[in-house]
Amino acid sequence: MKFVAVTACPTGIAHTYMAAESLEQTAKANGDTIEVETQGSAGSAPLDPQVIADADAVIFAVDVAVQGRERFDGKPVVEVGVKQAINGAAGVFDQAREAAKAGPSKPALTTKVGANDRTGTKVRQWLMTGVSYLIPFVAAGGLLIALSFALGGYEIVDAPKVTDQFDAGSLQGWAALMFQIGSAAFGFLVPVLAGFIAFAIADRPAIAPGFVGGAIAVTVGAGFLGGLVAGLLAGGVVSALKRIRVPRPVAGIMPVVVYPLLGSIVVGVLMYVVVGKPIAAATTGLTNWLTGLSGTSALLLGALLGLMMAFDMGGPVNKAAYAFAVGGLTTGTGTSLQIMAAVMAAGMVPPLALALASTVRKALFTEVERENGRAAWLLGASFITEGAIPFAAADPLRVIPSIMLGSATTGALSMVFGVTLRAPHGGIFVLPLIGKPLLFVLALAIGTVISTVAVILLKQLKAGVPESAGTTANTAAVSA
Amino acid sequence: MDAELITTELVDLDLAEHDRRDVVRSLAKRLVAAGRVTDLELFLADVEKREAQMATGLEGGIGIPHCRSAAVTAPTLAFGRNAGGVDFGADDGPAKLIFLIAAPEGGGAEHMTILAALARRLVRAEFKQTLTAATDPAEVAAYVRQEVAP
Questions:
Q1: Which ipTM was obtained for this model?
Q2: Distance, in angstroms, between A375 CA and closest chain B CA?
Q3: Where is the PTS EIIC type-2 domain (chain A) (predicted)?
Q4: What is the pLDDT of residues A16-53, one digit of tens each?
Q5: CATH superfamily membership of A2-102
Q6: A388: closest CA among A327, A471, A323?
């Protein structure tokens, strides 16, 4: 079996290392493998997260608090004193075997960040971790709101609060209820994004500062962009706080009390007083600029939103365009409904185009990609732009420009055709809520074909058949 | 060049004392004489403080009194043997091999690796056997130094 262990004692001089040695020798004698992190005075090299992930069970042989305990969340854990590991290591391993059999204690939150990623990759992974936790809220909230529109019409936005008035016998009552539940889910978008970006950077202690910063971003009107900044700030602040060495006795309370408290204070002050307003101004500026474009050039606006939707397939840029469109929904003007339609159509293009491309030219795609392609049909039809990520991750330079081209075309055509949409999400399944549905489908089809042709041409320029099955990421997630 | 972890003068193969505190004091005096401890009473108080947290006796007849102390100048080991055994609070009886480990307060991690290496040897049967059988202090010091060498 594979084990990992942490050993720690009050002085960090003797027992920490004796316990480690004893565990290692016993594991060797039993034919097991173990890696031990000695949290002692000679410094400790943290265990590789991958090694932790692969371990069958975790042994804590400690007389003081384990530092970075959250790294082991979700693993079967046995906790004993250091002396027990020194004098009776065999028994400790028996316990660990039992624990491994009993299975993990509880599922843990996961992050997409790998230990050895480069800085650029890390930043992207931080953002994508945040986005991945955001997606369920978009899915639940977006589909509920779409459902409420389908049941009760667009006026449901103005229905009285269900706490004041709820008629279980009327369709309108249920529609209002669905809408308000969906709105509650949407209310979490920015805080969840910020909280889990922070989590990706600095682990669990950063969640609270991230959420708080995200909520403040909403309050000051800094929106989605503010959420990104709040999440990065919270992660950075907590990372910095974690570097401060503290006496061992208080180390245990740092992650649950001190880091969240200090982190929230720092992030809160920064968001309210320093960065919140400029970001709010930038957000307003972006919104005004995009809104201004809609007056002068619908075509240009549609194309621009299409480019944004396809650029990172559910990432921050995509979400910025989507947030702009959803923000307009509540105003209910004709232009804002056109923008919503253009954004959704453009967001559906990338997975659909790659599904089509991997169907018509199988040889240009790996087996894994062809499998992803089959799923991408449904993902695209449901407006889940992330369906394109496995393809883009494997071959970004060919895939991303291709899908941006098609999405831009679709976005521009949708605007020019004057297609409208009241629902914030739902893809082909909210077709009844689309004004000029045939033209919507036409715009979608044209963009999809353009992307398909582009990606096939670019891939053919590359000699031979792709050999790498570099992606197994089967992202089943709702995008905007 | 850092001070050696242990020298011949820091080995006592025939401790006369039978009480834990007396044994520690006797070994600590050797540390003072070797210039590794500047303040005997402060050092002894720090060892006692650590001992009060949890007895340092281990199964198999070993006692490892130790502490980090401002009175210590360099990571050092004083080794003593007592045929009759000294009670260090282990469940299975008195300690015949006593390792007094002195670590400087706030020592850098590099300094401490030698003590980590020493601690790891303490749980190896071969290490204990060699020290039990040894007859010459110089031989003991050389053996320990060689074992903990990086």
A1: 0.85
A2: 53
A3: 123-468
A4: 988 999 999 999 998 999 999 998 877 778 888 888 98
A5: Response regulator (3.40.50.2300)
A6: A471
